[in-house]
Amino acid sequence: MKQTVTLRNAAILAACLLIYPAIFSGPFYLDIGVTFLLAAISASAWNIVGGYAGQVSVGHSMFFGFGAYAPLLFYTLFGWPPVLGIPVGIAASIVLAIVIGVPTFRLTGHYFSMATIAVAELIRIFFGTWNLVGAAIGLQGPATARGWWDLTFRSEIPYYYIFLAVLALLLGLTHALECRRFGYSLRAIKAGERAARSLGVPVQLTKIRALVFSAIFTSIAGSLYSLKTGFIDPESGFGILISVQMVIIAALGGAGTLYGPLVGALILIPLQTATNTWFGGGGSGLTYILYGGIIVLIARYEPGGVFEIWHRLAPQRWRAKLAA
Amino acid sequence: MLLLQVIVGGLLLGAIYALFSSGLTLIWGMMNFINFAHGEFVMLGMYVALLVVLWVGGGPAIFGLASAIALFFLGVAIYLSLIRYVLRGPMLSQILSTFGLALLLRYTAFFIFSANFVSLPQTPLSGIINVAGILMPVAQLVAGIVAILLTIGLHLLLTRTTIGSQLLAVSEDRSAAMLMGIRPDRMQALAWGLSAGAAGIAGALMAISYPWSPSVGETFGLTAFVVVALGGFGSVPGALYAGLIIGLIQGVSAFWFGPIYKDIVVYALFVALLWLRPQGLMGKA
């Protein structure tokens, strides 16, 4: 029963996302669609370690940045098609995840949060001074495509479907993990680390595996970002606001739920576009005041996010319907 | 000689790091809670100092006190309206609460004061004195010494007074403290006030000699993490030594490698520390 409902929901969601470009075909709406998908991919990747395992990273931009730099770096250095840089970004992110995870996961969760923010900042400043990666100016991708393999398109539609495919893959894998021992171990760790350990869950190893899995997809999200925009600099790759966006989207929708990040992105991306349009870009910082306010309100009133509200309200509504 | 001067300058800046980091370590030690908005408190202390100088006038004693008092009440208000409720919540809301607060404070400051760097107008503490060939701006010297005295004062307050014992009692065992007639909420609000007040006055001291913009809060927040990680969590004397050490390392690495590398060296030290000695230099294993 539950399985069929899940399948039906996934099918409806997939259908809606597949036909979106056909209905909203203007460049403005396509751009929102692509931004939404990218935000959903990043936040879903964060969700593995931040949501399911409850290890709150506030420096996930380090993986995003590695993923974003690698394609353009190899294009700039050797003229490789940017796609070939994606595995390099993934490899670098895996190494970084292990380097950070091994020491901090031995300690309480706060250390992990602190270490992630410090490492992300360290890398951002370092990339800003390193001439090989363009220092503060950053790197650029191919201006016009030399062939389809450059993945440089005029239209947004190919990007839309590539991003959608990656999102589907990520959600599919997450769902598969959810139902396996690994997924149960993650939730056990989140609920109570000591209890999980006493039941024989290899806590340290599970956390590191979650972080590595999360880092891989965050890195892919970064690669997709730089493939699409064809440009990357330290701020747009490693900036703290990249991490903030992942955290807020996942927490707003519901951290540790499969569709939570999607719901969060569905709320936040249009909201962000609206505030940017009304208040004139990010220059005034009003968008981020809004972000900060939302994060504080979630933390204070509804740590479970929108999903939690839904789970509380839905039964009441059904009960009302049955009683009527 | 130049190196000696760099060392003294680094130590004087480190004294201010020690002061605001002791506020962070107080909250951490007492509630096992990390305040991601601590650097923003320092930044706000700087702007309070600026506003007081522009609107009221007066010297460092006046605006320093004003920053301390303003931030004390902000800290108490934040505890009572937000932190109290998330303290017993899941880890996610603990981290999100102050992280969101940091964004809120930082970008509100951006909105009000713009992203431009500002500095205090000339204060009475100007001029340079020459101690055995080392040239020191009077403002930095006074600020450094005041910061060390205040950090020691905070340590004495925590260890030698009734209030300190009550704070310690709450952090050791909340229920037992309640049975002894201590109100934990009141004590924790006081701790938040002291923590933010220390950050505020540190900001005012720093504002005397350094220009700043709303984004400095992020750097100061990270610096405070490193200082606390080095000094041991919850230890005010540890924060004092570690603050001086970090100031020194920053000054010397800026001198040897160039100013842009000073933060890189400090953050790299932090990562190394997490690998090798996560409990800090003074902390117990």
Low-confidence stretches of chain A are none
**Could you please say which CATH topology of chain B applies here?**
ABC transporter involved in vitamin B12 uptake, BtuC
**Derived structural class of chain B:** mainly alpha
Strand content of chain A: under 5%
Question: Radius of gyration of chain B from the CA trace?
Answer: 18 Å
Number of helices in the DSSP assignment of chain A: 14
Which structural class is indicated by helix and strand composition of chain A? mainly alpha
Oligomer: heterodimer
Tally of separate domains of chain B: 1
Detailed description of the structure:
The complex is a heterodimer of chains A (324) and B (285). Chain A has 14 helices and two strands, in the order αααααβααααβααααα. Chain A is mostly helical. Chain A has one domain. Chain A has a two-stranded antiparallel sheet. The longest helix of chain A is centred in the middle third of the chain and has 27 residues. Chain A is globular, with a radius of gyration of 20 Å. Chain B has a single domain, classed as ABC transporter involved in vitamin B12 uptake, BtuC (Orthogonal Bundle). Helices cover 76% and strands 3% of the residues of chain B. Chain B contains eleven helices and two strands; from the N terminus they run ααααββααααααα. Chain B has a two-stranded antiparallel sheet with strand order 1-2. In chain B, a hairpin with a 2-residue loop joins β1 and β2. Chains A and B meet through α4, α5, α11 and α13 of A and α3, α4, α9 and α11 of B.
Question: What's the arrangement of secondary structure elements?
Answer:
The complex is a heterodimer of chains A (324) and B (285).
Chain A: H1 2-23, H2 27-52, H3 61-78, H4 85-104, H5 109-127, E1 139-140, H6 157-178, H7 181-191, H8 193-198, H9 203-229, E2 231-232, H10 234-238, H11 240-253, H12 260-279, H13 286-301, H14 305-323
Antiparallel strand pairs in A: 1-2
Helix pairs in contact in A: 1-6, 2-6, 2-9, 2-11, 2-12, 3-4, 3-9, 4-9, 7-9, 11-12, 11-13
Chain B: H1 2-31, H2 38-55, H3 60-86, H4 91-113, E1 128-131, E2 134-137, H5 138-160, H6 162-172, H7 174-179, H8 184-209, H9 216-231, H10 236-257, H11 262-276
Antiparallel strand pairs in B: 1-2
Helix pairs in contact in B: 1-5, 1-8, 1-9, 1-10, 2-3, 2-4, 2-8, 2-9, 3-8, 5-6, 5-8, 6-8, 9-10, 9-11, 10-11
